[in-house]
Amino acid sequence: MPIFGICLGHQLLTWAFGGRTYKLKFGHHAANHPVKELATGKVEITSQNHGFATDPESLPADVEVSHINQNDGTVSGIRHKSLPVFSVQYHPEASPGPHDSLHLFRRFHAMAVEQASARA
C-alpha cells in the first residue's frame, strides 16, 4: 500500500521505521522555508509548522533522507528504498510557491496506480 506522510505523518513514519526525532529549539513556522530535494537538486519554497525534526543518523539502511531544509540543514523528507513509502516534514498542500510541491502528489498517485495494477 503506498504511503505519503505529511508533517506529523513524516514523524510517524520516522518512528515506524525505527528512527528518532528531536525537539527543535524554535521550530519551523512560516510559508517561506526553502527545501532541497536531493534526487533532483530542486529547491521548493515550503510552508511549515512543526517543532520536531528527524535524526538522520537514527534511520535504518533501507530509509534515506530525500529532502533537506536549506535554512538549518534538518531533514525535511525521507523515502523507503524498496517500499512505496515517502514523507515530507512540511505542508505541500499549502502551495506557498506557484505549484512547487505538486510533483509529490503526482508521485504518490503514480505509486497508487502501480500498486492497483499489480493487484489486478
Give me some keywords for this one.
120 residues, alpha+beta, six-stranded mixed beta sheet, 2 helices, 6 strands, 22% helix, 42% strand
Give helix % range: 10-25%
What share of residues are in beta strands?
35-45%
Give the helix tally. 2
The chain-level structural class is alpha+beta
Describe this structure in words.
The model has no long low-confidence stretch (mean pLDDT 92). The chain contains two helices and six strands. It starts with a strand and ends with a helix. A hairpin with a 4-residue loop joins strand 5 and strand 6.
Please give a quick description of this structure.
By secondary structure, this protein is of the alpha+beta class.
Give the secondary structure arrangement, pairings included:
Layout: E1 3-6, H1 8-16, E2 21-37, E3 43-54, E4 63-69, E5 75-80, E6 85-88, H2 102-119
